[in-house]
Specification:
alpha/beta; seven-stranded mixed sheet; 6 helices; globular; binds 5-O-phosphono-beta-D-ribofuranosylamine; Formyl_transf_N_sf
Length: 211
Amino acid sequence: KRLVILISGSGSNLQAFIEKQQQGSLGGTIVSVISNNPEAYGLTRAREAGIKAVSLDHKTHASRESFDKELAEEIKKDQPDLIILAGFMRILTPEFVQTFRGKLLNIHPSLLPKYPGLHTHKKALENNDEFHGTSVHFVTEELDGGPLIAQSQMRLIVGSESNEENELNEQQVMQRIQKLEHRLYPEVASWYLNNRLTMEKDGVYFDHKKL
Ligand code: GRF
């Protein structure tokens, strides 16, 4: 099975995929990594792992539609079975999403449907949420709104009273959530690659006999 991974930044999730592939438990091969940001460190990670690294700068396009068209063409060259959005910070057009319907996965750092969009750690802390986490979902036209597949969560509030020594700051929460992501996301992708899960009519179908 063939994977294409889309990134915009550091690519720590990409790294987790590379490691799972190297361990032989991903169920597929990462054929290319594409970044809309030419400076993304994830491109270096890809090259170091011997994976084709492509930079497609969205700033060279006048519209979202024209960027997405070029992106779709680049992806089609690689004939992927699965496309992984790993910190890809671009909103995709409905045309793009329809082209690859049922083959697109995203990870979002909140317990969806809570906190779609940006600044999720800040929001969870400000709201004194007891739990916070990360979600893997199929991508639909709705931002961070496609059917949920799996989540990892952690406790933010320890005990009943807020205690400064125990309080996490935004940076620490982000680091802990990313650790959860690095375990969860490649695992969910391996379910997909092993035909254990599909998207049907905007819902998720699990083959529990295989899980
Ligand atoms: C992840 O936390 C992901 O949930 C969010 O962006 C971050 C990407 O980090 N959308 P990295 O580029 O994989 O290190």
